[in-house]
Each structure stands twice: as C-alpha cells, then as structure tokens.
Design brief:
- By secondary structure, the chain is an alpha+beta fold.
- Among the domains are: 62 residues; 152 residues, Alpha/Beta hydrolase fold, catalytic domain (Rossmann fold).
- The protein has 16 helices and 31 strands.
- Strands 26-27-29-28-30-31 form a 6-stranded mixed beta sheet. Strands 3, 4, 5, 8 and 9 form a 5-stranded antiparallel beta sheet that branches.
- The radius of gyration is 35 Å and the shape is globular.
- The N and C termini lie far apart (80 Å).
Length: 716
C-alpha cells in the first residue's frame, strides 16, 4: 500500500491515511458506526487517494518540458514507417541491430535524439506519420476519449471485482497464457553526429548461417545433440554487416551500397573526427587531456567516413559518404593478391586539414601524409623497418611520434623503440636508444620521456631521457639478488638461420637451475604458428611455465619462423599464406639442429614439441608429417584447430587464405572431349589444374589508384 503525504508525494509500504480524519481514533464511535459505513469510508478514501494521484500526475506532466514532445513531432513527422521499423522490428531471427547504445561524447543524447530513439524502440509511429494535421488532431482526441472510456471500464470492472471474477477471469487467464510471446525488441546501437543531424548504425545478418553440431555427453540420462550458428571458411552464407545512415534533414534511412560481396566496415566516424587505435596509450591527465577529448568529437553529420574491406581481407578502401546525397567517394585504395591486408585507424591533423595513413604498400609498414580529401603528399617514414603505431602528433611543430622496430643495427629486429620524425619525412630521431625492447612514455611537454626497457636476458630498468634520446637519470633497476640466491638462472637468447639459410631468426633457451654442461639434455620446443604473433618472448619475465618445465631436467626453447608475425616485412608475414599447417616446422627443425651443432649438451636424438590452440595444431602436424615425425620424438597437443576447413571462417580466410578459382567440372570437360583420345583429355586436365593454382584477381583490384600492389616478395 502507499501513503499520500502533505507534500503530495507517495511512499510505498505504509497504510493510506485520510487527512480529514482525526489522528486519534475513538474506539467507541468507530465500533458503533463500523458495520454501517465501511463501504462508504472505503469509497471516500479511494476517491481522495485517486484525487491526490491525479494531482500528482498533473504536477509531473507540468514538469515535463513541452519542447521534448514538440521537437520530436517536428522532425519525426515525415519518417517513413516502413524504413524506420527496420531498426526495431525483429522480422527474421538473426537479422537485427545490436542492443547496446553509444551515447556520444557528453554521455547523453539530446532531447530530440532521445525521443526519436524511443520511437525506434517501440515502433509507435501512428502519431508521427505524414498526413492531414486536422485529421491527426481528431484521431488524437478520439484516442484520448477511448482512453477515458477504458479507464471508466477499468473502474467498473474494479467495482464488480468480487462478483464477476468467478465467471470470467479464470477463462481469460487461460487464453492469455496460450498467447505466444512477442519477440523482444531491442534499442539499436546508433552513433549520432556532433550536430545531431544524422546517425549511423550497423546491422548484422546471420539468418542463413548453417549450424554446427555438438554432442553433450554430460547430459542425463542420455547424451544430447546441440547446435549453434557457425560459418565455415569458403561457405556462401556467413555473418554479414550492413551499414545504415539516417539523415535527419531528409527523414531518410538508407543503407551504404556495398562494393564487395560480404564486405566489412571499420573506423566509422563523422567528418573530421579525430580517431584513435584501441591499443593507443592512455590519455594524459590534466588540461591537455581535456583539450584532446574535445578534439576527438568535431565531426558534422554531412560526411561519414569509414574503411571497407572485402571478405578475404585482401583489399581495403577509405571512403567518404555524403549523407545528404548518399554519394560515396573512395579516397584511398590498397590491395594485395597473395596476402591479407592490415589497416589502422586514420589519424586526422585538425589544424592542418591533413590525415596520416598507414600502409604496407612498400613491403614494410609506414606512415603517409594525405590531404583530408585523399590527395597524396609524401611518405612520412620509409626504409627497411616497421613503423607500427602513432604515439602523438605535434601539429604546431609538424612532428610525429611513433613506435617502430627492426631499424637499429645489431639488435633483435623485434625490439620496440620510440621515434620522432617531421611530417615531411625528415629528421628521424631515436628517443630511447639501447639494446632492449622499450615501453617509453612522453611527458606532457614532450621534452622528456620515461623509458622502461628489458630483454629476456636483461632485468627491467627505468630511466628518464630528454627530447634527443640522451639519458638524464636512472629511476630504478630491478634487484634480482634474491632470485640468484634461490639458484635462479637467467634465460639465454640466440640467433639462427631459417631453413632457407638466409633469414635471421631469434630464439630463447631456459635451462634447469642445476644445469651441468657435461651432460646431454633432451630439448622441448614450445611452439605457436601465428601468423598474428610468433610465440617468441622478447621482454623479461619470471612468471611462466617454461622455467618450471626446465626444472624437470629439460632444455626448453622458443624458436621463430618465417610467416609467424606481422612485426617484420610483408614478405615475412605472408610466407605461410595458403599453408598454415606445415610452414613453420622447417624453421623449427633447422633452429634446433643449429643449436645442437653449437652446444654439445643438446641431445639431438631426444626432441619434444608442445603447444596450445595453434600450437596444438602445429604439434599434431609435426607428429604426422615427414620428415618432422622422425625428428620430434614426442609431442603434447592441446586444443588444436587441426583442420582450418572447419575452423572460424574469419580467421582461417584471413590468415590461411582462400583461392578464388573458376569452377568447371572435369566431367563437363570430358564430355566435350569425347572421341579425342584419353591422352588429350588428361593433358587438358593438367592445364586446368595448373591454372587453378593461380589466384584470380579479387573483385575491385582493378580499381586500385593510390595503394600500389605488391607481390608476395614485398616489392612493387
């Protein structure tokens, strides 16, 4: 129950009190009048409570700003219901917008935006469709009248609640129970432009994805068959993305026309909005952070920009969409034929009307300067090293700060450093020198940096360097004395040649604490094929299982292999394209053989291998493929994706690759070749097989303009 207080507010859980009654009940009078007036008193009480609730409701209505309703009606009047309902109606299963919602930089939506989203969520468009204003007013009045009648009806039902319930209510309840549940509607996840004139939303289509079946052996009393949607590599039906834009000025919702079949989208943003990669360093504190936050949201609803890529992730376009005309312009294009393509978010230079674009077009990852309209200006970085990620841009001085690797002579190619370069490509400066991998953070003034560095065989140190890379002071150095006192042994690093005899590769070695160089030790290789990461550590750590395994009396090694990581050249990364199963094993074998030649304590006749996931996949291949199953005597494979034909389509198609070929059945060839002789037919079949080994050009490749294609050797 509830209590109506003097202020008109309602408190739950207390007994309703009549303000007109005396606060102290007189028992004698109450007893004498109770039998005859209970119904009357109850009716009066209900009436007063109702009156107070109505007053309360009127106050709430008065508090609600009129502008909210007016603004919603003003710009939602002409919404095409058939289009707008696409955002809410779950017409078919697995074809809907995501349920989360992005609320913009201020953490909340404008009044008009919030109102329109409510319409999209509920699908109640009757009062907002185009039509005769008078007719709409009449309809609204009729609706109010019906609502009033309905309230009266509800009241009458309440009056005869005790008497009529027995006859009709139980039957009505049964009918209600039999009604099927309506599909739940979810509010679409939309991103508004800063000026609230447009929004975009992404729709996922999984309707035709086939089922993958599993047996639940733990169910009782019998195992049960379970399934879930899971697209496989090469299948026609996969999960698709659709990009939609709503233009508030035209009251129009439209889909961005795709260029490729099953294309995907990323880095979607408004106009000149400054964007950042997910793995960027955390923003700095204080006034500078507030300034940067403001720069991140400056786009208008006139232009939407995005990256689109084809299904096999071999081609990408940076596009600009005019939301008022739905015209889409391609500003930059990139593509490869026998490798997947990597992209990064576009970095805008707000005050210069320019943008920074990252590409592997030269065979190495580098940054390029373009006008905001996609006109190429110059390469910012270049050469046989990898510029991996933007750290900061000083537009006033025209300086770009970035992380990179593989540039410094005499170092492991994977050691990370911080660099500075002018936007015109001159003045490249190393800011954290030293033979180690570095994690450096710029000061707010960019005059200093804090450098934290380590290697697998070097304990971490922290120091301060100036803007030219000179050490100013040491901050801290790790103390390993207690580890050494416990008998701990520092791991070792080594280099070796790949199976081609040319490519430099890197490895790590862990020994037992009681290592005796006069003995022979079995070797266990920890493996992971990549190609998104190589499975070789480059920074210091004591908390891992490799040292524990070595303590059992083994030598434990990690060895690099061609194709294992994107952290080097494009040719290196794409080495295993079309062959993710076996491509790394030759280099693993070559590395252990070279290690045995250099170190007499390595027992070449006792070599083991183990790995998890991709490493489990690689381990099983080593135990079943010659000559590796003679070299590796034992292996432990856990959770291996042993057949990429039945693995996740996106990962397998991107990294393993699919060959696009013209399909022509040999039976048709033979039928056309009847009477020509068997030898001729076989020769034609061989020619067709050779033809199928070459990739057909991916649709859209012939439109490449700014992005130069490179072959799998990384050369133009």
């Amino acid at each position: 129950m509830s209590e109506i207080t003097d202020e008109g507010t309602e408190k739950k859980g207390d007994v309703v009190k009549d303000e007109g009654k005396d606060k102290v009940d007189k028992k004698e009078d109450g007893d004498s009048k109770k039998d005859g007036s209970d119904d009357d008193e109850k009716s009066k009480d209900d009436g007063k409570v109702k009156e107070e609730e109505d007053k309360d409701g009127d106050k709430d209505k008065k508090k609600e700003p009129e502008k909210k309703v007016d603004e919603r009606e003003a710009w939602a009047d002409d919404v095409d219901e058939s289009q707008a309902l696409q955002l809410t109606e779950n017409g078919e299963e697995d074809y809907e917008f995501s349920s989360s919602r992005y609320r913009g930089p201020q953490g909340q939506l404008d009044v008009g935006q919030e109102a329109y989203l409510d319409i999209l969520q509920t699908g109640e468009f009757e009062d907002f469709l185009p039509g005769d204003d008078d007719k709409k007013d009449d309809d609204k009045k009729d609706g109010d009248k019906k609502d009033g009648d309905k309230k009266d009806g509800d009241k009458k039902d309440g009056d005869k609640e005790d008497g009529d319930k027995e006859d009709g209510d139980s039957e009505g309840t049964d009918e209600e129970d039999e009604k099927p549940e309506e599909p739940k509607k979810s509010r679409p996840s939309v991103t508004w432009s800063q000026d609230s004139t447009a929004f975009y939303a992404t729709r996922r289509d999984s309707r035709d994805v086939e089922e993958l079946f599993l047996v639940n052996s733990l169910s009782t009393p019998r195992p049960t068959l379970e399934s879930y949607s899971y697209p496989l590599p090469g299948e026609e039906n996969i999960r698709r993305s659709e990009l939609y834009v709503f233009d508030r000025s035209r009251k129009t919702l439209f889909r961005v026309d795709p260029v490729w079949k099953d294309e995907g989208y990323s880095n979607v943003h408004w106009g000149k909005t400054v964007t950042r990669d997910e793995d960027d360093d955390k923003k700095k504190e204080g006034e500078e952070a507030e300034e940067e936050e403001e720069l991140d949201f400056t786009g208008t609803g006139d232009t939407l920009r995005f990256l689109r890529r084809d299904r096999l992730v071999r081609n990408v376009e940076f596009c600009s969409l005019d939301t008022r005309t739905a015209e889409c312009t391609t500003l930059i294009e990139e593509g490869f034929q026998r490798a997947n393509i990597s992209t990064q978010s576009v970095r805008y230079l707000k005050d210069r009307d320019e943008l920074v674009w990252w590409s592997e077009r030269s065979g190495w990852g580098h940054f390029y300067l373009y006008s905001k309209d996609g006109e190429f200006k110059n390469a910012i970085t270049s050469g046989p090293f990898r510029a991996s990620r933007i750290v900061e841009v000083d537009e006033d001085k025209g300086l770009l700060y970035f992380r990179g690797n593989a540039r410094e002579d005499g170092e492991n190619l994977y050691y990370d450093h911080l660099y500075r370069v002018f936007l015109d490509g001159t003045g490249l400066t190393l800011l954290d020198p030293g033979d180690a991998t570095h994690r450096s953070n710029l000061s707010p003034t960019r005059n200093f940096l804090v450098d934290n560095c380590s290697r697998v065989d070097m304990a971490p140190i922290s120091r301060v360097c100036d803007a030219e890379g000179n050490e100013v002071m040491k901050l801290e150095e790790s103390d390993l004395s207690r580890l050494y006192a416990a008998g701990w042994v520092m791991p070792e690093t080594f280099t070796f040649k790949a199976a081609d005899g040319i490519t430099d590769l890197y490895g790590n070695l862990w020994k037992p604490f009681d290592f005796d160089p006069t003995k022979k030790y079995a070797v266990i290789a920890e493996v992971y094929p990549g190609p998104q990461m190589e499975g070789v550590s480059h920074s210091f750590s004591t908390s891992h299982g490799r040292q524990q395994l070595a303590q059992l009396g083994f030598l434990v090694v990690q060895l690099g292999h061609r194709g294992g990581t994107p952290g080097r050249s494009k040719a290196y990364h794409s080495y295993g394209y079309f062959n993710l199963r076996d491509y790394g094993l030759a280099d693993k074998k070559a590395g252990i053989e070279q290690l045995a030649e250099q170190r007499p304590y390595v027992d070449i006749n006792r070599i083991g291998i183990y790995g998890h996931s991709g490493g489990g996949f690689m381990t099983a291949a080593a135990l079943m493929q010659k000559p590796y199953n003679d070299f590796f005597k034992v292996g432990v494979s856990s959770s291996g994706n042993h057949d990429n034909n039945v693995y996740g389509y996106y990962w397998a198609e991107r990294y393993h690759g699919l060959r696009e070929v013209e399909v022509e059945k040999k039976e048709q060839q033979r039928s056309r070749s009847r009477g020509r002789g068997q030898g001729e037919v076989e020769a034609r079949d061989d020619e067709d097989d050779d033809k199928k080994k070459d990739d057909t050009k991916v649709e859209g490749d012939d439109k490449k303009k700014d992005g130069e294609k490179v072959d799998d050797d990384g050369e133009k």
